[in-house]
Design brief:
By secondary structure, this protein is mainly alpha-helical. The chain has a two-stranded antiparallel ribbon with strand order 1-2. α2 packs across α4 and α6 runs antiparallel to α8. The longest helix is centred in the C-terminal third of the chain and has 22 residues. It is globular.
Length: about 300
């Protein structure tokens, strides 16, 4: 497969569909797997590929490739290949879309890992303290739980994205903008950080509009935000696995458990499809079943 075909498709993803740089890089890696297989199997470029060749590629991914790929990775690569062939057909570079009938393996639903409300409270309490970085970390974690923001969205915030005292402007995948309310606990933590700590951190580096700053005065990195979350979890002694997405998952799960409409949660999370948000309803249904089984005298 020529680099011209790959570059054309990746440019389409970046420019026309507005996908993030890291996402486009992931697509490139998938296409390198496909291109390598085409070359090894002697099939030439995508214009010479039909349904039989694609079925062979799927078998290669699922059973023959070394090192083997996880089912989720197989599904992702096949999805990328489908997108490539659709693009080539739409651009007139191939006569037909050979991958139109290609069906990636169906994956079991992966339920998001939320933590209970009391565990969230212990996690947030673990950021209490007067030390500058503790004050910053409290503002960061309170914001993550108050808004359901991705860590990348939080560290990408500028001070001006605090639209007013009660809402924040977040920029999601593809630069899609959404406005999300900020609760009173997060507002108080952010105000304390802005007044007491950010000027001090800002003086250590070059002027930047970033809301959250690192110890040297530059924009806080995703890695540093992850360390802040991990350290708070260690101090809280939760005994639970906590990842950068834990507070986002907990935000959505706790809202739905409290009676929020799934489409409202969809808007708050910035999901393009309500189907993505609905997986959180499975989590709350599991919780209800567990509580029922535990509490009802004739449930077991």
């Amino acid at each position: 497969m020529s680099s011209r075909e790959i570059d054309g498709y990746l440019r389409h993803l970046a420019v026309e569909r507005g996908l993030a740089r890291n996402t486009v890089a992931s697509y490139r890696r998938d296409l390198q797997i496909y291109g390598g297989w085409l070359e090894q199997a002697g099939h030439g470029g995508p214009e010479y590929v039909g349904a039989a060749e694609l079925a062979a590629f799927q078998r290669y991914l699922s059973a023959e490739r070394q090192p083997a790929l996880a089912s989720s990775s197989v599904a992702r690569v096949l999805s990328t290949v489908r997108g490539l062939h659709r693009f080539l057909a739409e651009e007139g570079l191939t006569e037909t879309d050979a991958a139109r009938e290609l069906k990636p393996p169906k994956l079991p639903a992966r339920l998001p890992k939320a933590i209970p409300i009391d565990a969230v409270e212990r996690l947030l309490a673990a950021t209490d303290g007067d030390e500058p970085l503790r004050v910053r970390d409290k503002a960061l974690l309170e914001l993550l739980y108050a808004t359901g923001a991705r860590v990348s969205e939080a560290v990408g915030l500028n001070v001006d994205d605090l639209v007013d005292a009660e809402v924040v402007r977040l920029f999601g995948k593809g630069g899609k903008e959404r406005i999300v309310p900020v609760g009173s606990y997060a507002r108080a933590a952010i105000e304390a950080y802005l007044v007491r700590v950010r000027p001090q951190l800002s003086s250590r580096g070059r002027a930047t509009p970033a809301l959250f700053l690192g110890a040297r005065g530059g924009r806080l990195t995703r890695q540093a935000a992850w360390v802040a979350i991990r350290d708070a979890a260690d101090r809280a002694e939760l005994g639970l696995e906590v990842s950068p997405h834990t507070l986002r998952h907990s935000f959505a799960t706790h809202l739905l458990s409290g009676g929020a409409d799934v489409r409202v949660v969809q808007e708050l999370l910035g999901h393009s499809s309500v189907a993505t948000t609905q997986i959180y309803t499975l989590v709350t249904a599991d919780t209800l079943r567990e509580m029922y089984t535990t509490a009802h005298p004739r449930a077991r």
